[in-house]
Amino acid sequence: MTTKTLAFIGLGIMGSLMAKNIQKAGYTLTVHNRTKEKAKALIADGAQWAATPKEAVAHADIVFTMLANPTVVEAIAYDKNGILPNMKKGALWVDMSTVNPSFSKKMADAARNHQLRYLDAPVSGSKVPAEKGELIFLVGGTQEDCAEAQPYFDIMGKATHFMGENGQGSAMKILINLMLAQSMAVFSETVHLGEAMGLGKENVVELLLNHPVAAPILQGKKNNILNETFEPEFPLAHMQKDLHLVAQTAFEHHYAMPLANAAKELYAQAKQHGLGNQDMSAIFQWLK
């Protein structure tokens, strides 16, 4: 068992389950979250509570963060009671948040300026894979730092893909979420057209999901569509945020993405009309 000291910041739907799996593997964590309530189960199982990010990271060899968006990451990074001013020199910050590639590069530069190491390591997968320890890690940074974090990636996930320099992990993640968002929207629209033509929803869903034209990941949303219940595994608001990151990245690279921007506005409309906290598959409900 390693003697490394670990900290985990961000205990939302995903982070709480990822931290739990590290704990179940026998490691002790120091944890912090904006609301302590979400840390209660981890604390009950032996995690140490830190009232501030500063307290969480002060003695950590590796700090894991799983936060909602770049704004939250940046705020917690630079604050005087935050990550960068208070981590031990030479320690490793592993940011598993979904952020845009240029932001990851900015955080990597900031970490180096504080004599720290940094990996962008966003995950592919939602609530159920997080619970089962079956996430897929997409990592940007150095191979040496990736190797240091690998034992913990192996606990939280089933595969790790080293993508290259800082920012490349985040780059791959937004591409995956772009495909997911568009696939979910197209599938939803197609099912609704089938119903409008008099075909039964269940029959349309079954046939499409067992046809090569459907993305395999949509199988996991089958019951959501059939039952029209959208308990959040991956909140729709997070998907809209990720599509915004895609659009921002495309702008930075002088690349037009008309389909991606149409999808972004579709998810934004759904969020605006109260579906943001439901699962991203609730785009089916919005398109009905």
Overall description:
Residues 6-164 form the 6-phosphogluconate dehydrogenase NADP-binding domain. InterPro entries: 3-OH-isobutyrate_DH-rel_CS, 6-PGluconate_DH-like_C_sf, 6PGD_dom2, 6PGDH_NADP-bd, HIBADH-like_NADP-bd, HIBADH-related, HIBADH-related_NP60_sf, NAD(P)-bd_dom_sf. 51% of the residues lie in helices and 13% in strands. Strand 8, helix 7 and strand 9 (157-164) form a beta-alpha-beta unit. The model has no long low-confidence stretch (mean pLDDT 97). It has 288 residues and is α/β, with parallel strands linked by helices. The protein has a six-stranded parallel sheet with strand order 3-2-1-4-5-6, with helices on both faces. The longest helix is centred in the middle third of the chain and has 29 residues, at 168-196. It is built from 13 helices and nine strands.
Coarse structural class: alpha/beta
> Number of helical runs?
13
Name the overall outline: globular
| Spatial sequence of strands, sheet with the most strands | 3-2-1-4-5-6
First and last CA, distance: 52 Å
Q: How many E-type strands? A: 9
* Sheet of most strands: 6 strands, parallel
DSSP helix fraction: 40-55%
CATH architecture of the largest domain: 3-Layer(aba) Sandwich
Spell out the CATH superfamily of the largest domain: NAD(P)-binding Rossmann-like Domain
CATH fold topology of the largest domain: Rossmann fold
Order of helices and strands: EHEHEHEHEHEEHEHEHHHHHH
User: What's the Cα radius of gyration?
Assistant: 20 Å
**Residue-averaged pLDDT:** 97
Overall tally of domains: 2
Beta content comes to 5-15%
